[in-house]
Amino acid sequence: MALPKETANHKQKTILTKGQTIPLNIKRLGINGEGVGFFKRTVVFVPGALPGEEIIAQIEKVYPNRAEAVVKRIKKKSRDRVVPPCPLYDECGGCQLQHLSYEGQLKEKQDVVRQAFERYTKIKPEKLPLRPTVGMQNPWEYRNKSQLQVAKEKEKVIAGLYGINSHRIIDLDQCIVQHPETVRVTNAVKRILEDLNIPVYHEKTRKGIIRTIVVRTGFETGETQLVLVTTQEKIPRKELLIAEIQKRIPEIKSIVQNVNDKKTSIIFGEKTIPLEGPETIGENLGSLSFELSARAFFQLNPQQTVKLYDEAKKAAKLTGKEKVVDAYCGTGTIGLWLAPDAAEIRGMDVIEESILNAKENAKRHEFTNTHYETGKAEVILPKWLKEGWKPDVIVVDPPRTGCDQAFLNTVGKIKPKRMVYVSCNPSTLAKDVHMLISHGFVLENLTPVDMFPQTAHVEVVCTLVQKNEG
């Protein structure tokens, strides 16, 4: 848990005790969406509290340099506090900010980015080129994929998420951030499993067959894929199960089984078996089309993905003459978005399957200016440089842990004119920017993009330029 800057350099012992009630003024939101206040210079994190509120908090946990608490009473409410529309909001934990107005969410997500740069860089707050958060017109029903754990409760098959701080599955018969089709299909599959008495997985005994119901729907194509994650390849009454799914949910294009027999929280196993229909469904992003297999990564909010990639394209400032590197390229989505305006796109990724997909995607869209290789960016970039190929722009979209230090050092040596960094973690972004500044880059722009409304997550498109290079 990242601590606010106020406490980053003060490791004083807390004077708080479990069960103690204290008055607290909430100053800001933390990176996980909790309210942050200070009691005698000790930082206190309070889920559900909002900036500007005055509360009475009860201490739940005490650590050497922080405490966690719950709201006992709100003395002064935030003007942005609203009633969460979801009846399961307090139990589910899938969303963290439904009690905050959407305008308030966009404002606080911008502040989360500001906090990260205050803490991890030496950029003066007034010099931080931070823009307003890019939001959604309708911040509901935006998720194109659901992955819900299956269980049995009093002979009823349920599917949902683990409740807050518990190992109890909360049955999600409705979810207002999911595409309605994913909810409808999941509910129909639950009833089919129940009617056919197909054994579902029990986490403690590790007995049963059906572990997870995964449903993905193409927003633009309307195509839907159902994946049943099972503990073994054999499913009792498999043919009848497939027939009932086809009969009751005929619009499903693809039915797939994935086998995961390990004791793990990871959803998918290594083996995937087509049961009915094609192995993939189609989805479009702008002018690009993609074939999505059961395990393929694809952005969960396609509507905002278009805005995110458009921000990256604006940041790259391409004229048609630039050589562009798409580092950590995955299946090549960002690079292909930029390809019409670039002289050449070169991408790399350590996952060979992703590189094969990137090549297929480029070929399907008839791009002739792309080149992909499997391997680490910090190895491949110097190789290309030795061959006489130097990028003008580097685009990177790393995992939450940020960029590899060796990669950042390599970028520092290559010195492209521009670097576009798409981040899903403001803290690791700020740390990496601090390092890039030491390599001669200047921070030009930070644009937060709200990819997951009602949650604490925020993406950022960050632009850096070499000194004296516009």
UniProtKB/TrEMBL annotation:
Transmembrane segments: none annotated. The active site is at C424. InterPro entries: MeTrfase_TrmA_AS, MeTrfase_TrmA_CS, NA-bd_OB-fold, SAM-dependent_MTases_sf, TRAM_dom, U5_MeTrfase_fam. It comes from the Bacteria. SUPFAM superfamilies: Nucleic acid-binding proteins, S-adenosyl-L-methionine-dependent methyltransferases. One of its GO terms (biological process) is rRNA base methylation. Keywords: 4Fe-4S, Iron, Iron-sulfur, Metal-binding, Methyltransferase, S-adenosyl-L-methionine, Transferase. The keyword Transferase applies. This is RNA methyltransferase. The lineage of its organism: Bacteria, Bacillati, Bacillota, Bacilli, Bacillales.
